[in-house]
Each structure stands twice: as structure tokens, then as C-alpha cells.
Amino acid sequence: MKLTLKVWRQKDAKSSGKFATYEAHDISEHMSFLEMLDVVNEGLIHKGEDPIAFDHDCREGICGTCGMVIDGNPHGPRARTTACQLHMRMFHDGDVITIEPWRAAAFPVVKDLIVDRSAFDRIIAAGGFISAPIGGAPDGNAIPIAKENADLAMDAAACIGCGACVAACPNASAMLFVGAKVSQLALLPQGQPERHQRVRSMVARMDAEGFGTCTNHGECEASCPKGIRMEFIARMNADYIRAKLTAGRRKDGAGEGGGG
Amino acid sequence: MEFKSNIPSGPIEKKWEKHRFEMKLVNPANKRKYTVIVVGSGLAGGGGAASLAELGYHVKCFCYQDSARRAHSIAAQGGINAAKNYRNDGDSVFRLFYDTVKGGDFRSREANVYRLAEVSVNIIDQCVAQGVPFAREYGGLLDNRSFGGAQVSRTFYARGQTGQQLLLGVYQALERQVGLGNVEMFRRHEMQELIVVDGRARGVVVRDMVTGEVETHLADAVCLATGGYGNVFYLATYAKGCNGTAIWRAYKKGAAFANPCFTQIHPTCIPVTGEYQSKLTLMSESLRNDGRIWVPKAKGDKRAPGEIPEEERDYYLERMYPSFGNLAPRDISSRAAKRVCDEGRGVGPSGYGVYLDFKDAIARLGRQKIEEKYGNLFEMYERITAEDPYKVPMRIYPATHYTMGGLWVDYNLMSTIPGLFVLGEANFSDHGANRLGASALMQGLADGYFIIPYTIGNYLARQKFTPVPAGHSDVRAAEKAVAERTQRLLSIQGTRSSTEFHRELGKIMWEHCGMARDKKGLEQGRSMIPELRQEFWKDLRLPGGGNELNQSLEHAGRVADFLEMGELMCLDALERDESCGSHFRTEHQTSEGEAERNDKDFCHVAAWEFQGDGRKPVRHVEPLVYENVELAVRSYK
Q: What angle do CA B236, B237, B242 make, to 5 degrees?
């Protein structure tokens, strides 16, 4: 098939960008969206033009590197699918496709479709972990975990950190990303000691990075390639309130009791 | 060049314990005086960086990705082995050790493998403590599944994304150390050169992939954990960015390269569909727990799979290997698939595919149970192929997946360059000529969490270090080499893109150094690659400049190295005149078509020493001694 692409081109973080139009010929329906871009880029290289820069790595939907807004949808039109797993059979001959980078103040554009998502790393560094120094762990079966909780923690942990939730949100909120990590660790007994401190630190960092707040649009869940549910934002909010209320009473801010 | 494996004396089950006691320690207060560079942020690199920082060392960690969380360990699907014996099915450290040595077709070092099996139990404990949400049973205890090459159930898993969950555990431990100021993390930085001063590894030259700036970082020791070099085949299950540049630079600086030809071709990947294809996608080996592999009995049978009656199907793995069946090791399963396709019994449009069928499992367990176990894999398959594997069998074919070869290391994971340590897939040590499923995650974490923290201390404590001045001639030379190389690539201004060269190299490698190899083909490969390389340096077309984000330049640099590496792989395959594990020389096979080892002449590690561009490297030999497992013909029948 033959397609027309309107692609955001931006030389670097300092320059201003604009849309450029390209024709894509001989596109097979079996190609992935990124393979289609590869074909376009090969053409540009041969014409002596600068190829379109886009982030990608595993191309099997798990590393979270790729991400672009395709016709207004982060990762494109197919639900629960990353751009690298999106195949051209979702499009039709003659389609005009608009491709943009993630748009969010906290994700500045680096070049073309590439953005800087290091804010996510800093949120994790602020508290998105269990402090379990290597070497001192008890037996893996020492603490049984209800399958229900383990499965729910896994649902939250499936987040690939791609940032589609931020790109989709009218407020550029990162609460789905943060809520998923807060919930995963709060659902596990190992995560209890730091539970309150963790949610406070991560939320503070999230705010400092310039992400917006959640006003329940639900765009994040709809665009998440891993189907992370908004329920985790609610869990985070509950934990955050609890942490804030108890912060004055308990110096270390540790949670009381387990579960979640 | 000297190849001292430095394996401790004594009985195998006491070696690591004894060694840990004998190693020198660095006083806690002195650790912060040392700087360690770690290149790579996967299970081995990220795990190593986090562990070393926890101990108090100052760590600088580099990755080419935009975040440490994206290292390709993340893509491992099936699971991680550990000799926990939670199933009460006869597992033990010794059995895991035995299975791994046998699985590697007796071309790995016994002592290393035993240590790996030993620490495997600690890995699971550590991961649970970090909050890795492993699959659990209703009683709340950890669940297991089976993997190829084993008759016990010892594989721990987190749905079909075990690598992701383990890596996120590593990443979180690493980011914690970043937050504490103990690790300096350099994202989007690619190593371009190793700095060796007075015979010891003392730093790296890296390129900032956003600004193009070339930076020098000095340290007291360097760890390379940069993964495998399987992208030499162009089409592989590796991430697009995976490359061999770091280990290749080290090789050219004096680190020996061991068993470069040992490449794992994974049996269950989605078949190639067209010339534009950029990568191949794995379907986890865990699927072989419940999926049955078959092809039609008749050649050229083009009927839809559902129309082929049971008695006209050949479940060839179950037929040929009744005791392991569909869970035969990867090298054996891959070759069997190739064989039936070469006979003309392959399925799908290209004829290079076999069925992986869940019909019986769905009938036995119900769709819901299958969905729970493999749901995300089935979805992924459907996205790529537009076929519903709940209704029609999957089509799969072997693809390059892992490299058992890598930089030679001793028992301490140190290469032939003092102070240069190599971890994870980047080294050669534990998997011999074939890696068993669910063992790569185990090795990555073992090296990073439990081995390097000890052995690097022992090295540092025994050395005296004086700071390397920034203007040192060896440092300057390394910086100059990087600048010149970039300039050389940019100045060619030819007509063909790096992707075109890469694809062509991949075809040569797959054809001549792939699943089946012979003398003639390897010789052909060895002469074709230098020609292609010459062509590359004459006719490469590279847009953009060096002082900017330039993905074409990044790729071209990697391809330039693959074009050298491929030649070494062919040479190694040629000179290893036997078959073993993944290395199948058609001249050496049994009457049943199995790999025929030659223990008299080849029971050794082949380690190659670089002699200069255009000169044949020297092949050194480290003999392999088997004291605990009897050298035997590997049988899975």
C-alpha cells in the first residue's frame, strides 16, 4: 500500500520543530509500524536526507523504548499494543498518518520523535524500590503471599515505563506510572516497611518533575499498551492520604499492618 | 598469552566457599576510594553496579538505552532456574550443575557451573525480597514450571515476562543507589574504546549519543556486561541496539575471545515473512510445556493444519526423543526443525516453519488455564501474525537468540586483561556449547549479585593504584582512535546504507555459520566477509554528522565491528573440527544425525588472541577437565 506521513521533525531540544510530509510506497501489511518507518528512512538516506529519529529497541513490546503519537493516539490505533507491535494491516491504502513525539513538559523533545524520559528514572530513584541489600534475603518461600495479591502486584508490575500514559493525559500526569509501582510494592509483604515513605517520596518527585495531576479522564488506561488499570491510581491516592495523615504521628512513617 | 583458569583446589562443592575465604577483602572505609566502571545495565551489569555500590564502591554505570530499565534482559520470557527443590521432585544443586554441564555438551568449566548452581538458590530469595512478583500457588508459595533439558520442575517465572520483572528488580536496586549518590548513571552513552594503562584496564572512552561528545572515564577496574553479539546475524531475537562493540574493542586491546562460534539458535520463534523484516520474535520455550510440535508426515502437504488428521501428523520431537519429547534442549530441537523443513515437510508460505499446537492442552486444561499461563505470548503472536493461536496452531522456526561464546574469563570473571571483568552473556563461561532454557537470567544475576562483588574486591586489594593523568599517552591514543574511526565512517560518502550491509552479512552468517556448518561453507564465509567489509569501508552511505544524535552513525559503527566479528566466528567454527551442542559440523554426525563430539582433540575452550588487523588471530587452548560429571554422549532419547 501507499501512505502519506506527516512527521514531526525537530533538530534538537533547542530548535523549534515542524511537520514534514513523506510518501511511503510499497508498504506490506505484514510490516510493523517501525519497519514501515525503516523503509521510509532507507529512502531518505538514499536521497541524502536526514532520516527520522525515533526510539526503539526490543521491537517486541516489552522494553518500553518506542513511543510515538500516531494520529493522536499514543502507540497508535490498536488497544494494548506498542508502536513496535502495531502492524500495517491496521491501516489502509492511501491513509494519511500523523506521527508526533510524546507531548509533555516533563518529557522534552531530544530530536524528532525522541523524548527525554529520565524523569521516570528519577521518580524510581526517589523511592520506587524495596531496600533489600543483596545477600541478606530470607528463603523465597518464608513468607507466603496470597495468589490474589501476587497476581494483582504482577498486573501493576507489567508497566513498561514507556510514558504513553503521560502523553495521553490532558494534564500530562504520570499518576498511572507512579501508581502502578506504588501499588505493586504496597501489595507485597516485603514492601510494607517503606510503604508510606515510598509513596510520599515518589509523589513529591513526580510533582517536582512537572507532571500534572489526575482529573480522572481515563486516557492513560485507554492508551496503556499493557492495560494498567486506573485502580492503581486510586490505591496510590489511598496510600498517600494514609501516609500524610500518619506522618506526624509516626516519625518513620511506616505503615501499620499488611495487606493493601 | 597465559590461560590460568584460577579454579580453586579441593572438592567441587567446597571450591567457592574456600575461595571466598581466601580472597582478600577491601576494608569498608577504603571501598569508597575505588571507582569501578560498569558498562551495561542488564541483569549482570545493573546487578553488579547495584551490588558494588551497596558495598561502598564508587560506581559509574553506562548504557546505550535511554534508561537502565530497558536493557535486553527485559525481553526474557520464560523463567529462571534455581535448585530449590520446592517440588520435591529430586532436584539438587548437583542435579542443576549436572544438567547444565550436559546441556552444554561438555564444553563448559565444571567449577564455574557448579558455583552457578550453588548461588541459584540465593537469587530467588534476593528477588523475592526486592518485590519481584513471581507466580505463586493458592497456598501462597512459589510456583514452578519445566524447561528444556531437565526432568525436574525448577523454573521460577512471572507470567511470560520473567526477564522484565527480574530486570526491574535490578533497576530499582540500581536507581536506589543512584538516588543515594553511590552510582553515577550515564544513559544514552555507548562505549567506544577500552583504556589500558600499564597492562591494566583503567577506563573507557564513551560517546554521548545525544550530543556526540566523546568522553573519557577513568577508574580502577572495568566490568563489561554488554550482552551477546548475536545481531551479527542481522535477524535475531536480540533488541535492535544489541551489539558487540564493547567486547570487540576489548578483544582488540588484548582480551581473548573464547568459543566465538557457539551461537544458540532458539527453536521457537515466529518465522520470517519478508525482506523488510527487522527482527525476529521469540515465543517462549515455556510454551513447549503444553504445546506439541509437529509437521505433516507427507512432503508438500499444503492442507490447513485442522484438516490434517492425527495419523498423518509427525510429532517428531516426541518420536525422536521420547523421554524429553517437546522439552528436548534447544540445539537439538532447532536442528530437528531444520531437518524436517529441509525434507520438504515445513509449513507456512515459505515452507520454513513447524506447528506448535495447543489443541490437546486446551482440551485437557481448558482455555482459561492456558490463557493464564501464556496469555501475553498468545496475544503477542496474534498481533504479529494476525492468527489466533487458540484456534490454529502457532507456526515457529529457529532463530538466533544467544551467544554462548564471549570474552574469555577465569574463575574470577576476569579477562586476560587484568582489571577487565566480563559478566553475563558477554563472557563465555557457563553454558558450554549450548545453553539450557532459563539459565541466562540465572547467570546474569549470579555474576552481578553474587560473584563480582567478591572477586573484584580480591583484585583491588592486591593492586596498588596511582591515578592515571588525563593526558596519559594511552588515554590520548584511545580518544584519538575513537575520533578517527568516527571521522572515517562519516567521510566515506558512498551509496549503500549500513542496514544493507548488515542484512547481507546476516545472510552470509546464516547460510555459512548457522545451524549446520561444513568446511566448504565456512571457508566460503571466511572469504565473503572480508570482501563485504572492504565494500563497506568503500561504499557506506552515512547521513548527518558526528556531533549530534545520529542513529545511522551508531548503527554503522556496530556493523563495522560485526563485519570483523563474523569472520572470527567462521574461523573458530572452521577450526573446531567436531560437532558439539549448537556447533553442528555436518561432517561429524552420528547415523541418526546427532552431534558427534571429538573429546580427544576438542575437549577444550578455544580462546583467540588478536594479532592486528588483517592478521590471523592465534588460537589458544584451555583444556577442560571433567572430574565430577562423566564425559558421555548426550542423550535425550
A: 80
Domains observed in chain A: 3-111 (3.10.20.30), 118-133+141-247 (1.10.1060.10)
Contact B378, B418 (CB under 8 A): no
Task: Tell me which chain B residues have a C-beta less than 8 angstroms from the C-beta of A58.
Answer: 70, 72, 74-75, 239-240
Please report residues of B whose CB lies closer than 8 A to that of A35: 276-278
Convert B147-171 to b/e letters by CB count within 10 Å (16 or more is b): bbbbebbbbbbbbbbbbbbbbbbbb
B409: closest CA among B335, B459, B462?
B459
Question: What is the nearest CA distance from A248 to chain B, expressed in angstroms?
Answer: 25
DSSP B334-402: HHHHHHHIIIII--STTS--EEEE-HHHHHHH-HHHHHHHHHHHHHHHHHHHS--TTTS-EEEEEEEEE
Cα B38 to the chain's mean position, in Å? 17
Which of B407, B28, B70 is CA-nearest to residue B246?
B407
CA angle B171–B172–B177, rounded 5-degree value: 95
Query: How do B155-156 and B80-81 pair as beta strands?
Result: antiparallel
Structural domains in chain B plus CATH codes: 12-24+35-262+404-461 (3.50.50.60), 267-399 (3.90.700.10), 473-603 (1.20.58.100)
Rounded to whole angstroms, the Cα distance separating B420 from B406 reads: 13
Question: Is B330 known to be catalytic?
Answer: yes
Smallest CA–CA distance, residue A245 to chain B, in Å, is 26
Catalytic residue among B115, B154, B292, B330: B330
Minimal CA separation from A218 to chain B, in Å: 23
Are residues A31 and B178, on separate chains, in Cβ contact within 8 Å?
no
CB pairs under 8 A between A and B: 226
B425: which 3 cell numbers? 552473556
Question: H or E element: which one contains B166?
Answer: helix B162-179
Which ipTM was obtained for this model? 0.97
Placement of cell 520446592 in the chain:
B86
Percent of chain B with pLDDT over 70: 100
B138 and B372 Cβ atoms separated by less than 8 Å: no
**Contact list, A34 vs chain B (CB under 8 Å):** 278
Option in A56, A64, A145 nearest B240 (CB): A56
* Secondary structure, 3-state, B49-81: HHHHHHHCCEEEEECCCCCHHHCHHHHCCCCEE
Write out pLDDT tens, residues B510-519.
999 999 999 9
Mark yes or no for CB contact A45/B383 under 8 Å: no
Whether B353 contacts B396, CB under 8 Å: yes
**B41-94 pLDDT, tens digit each:** 999 999 999 999 999 999 999 999 999 999 999 999 989 999 999 999 999 999
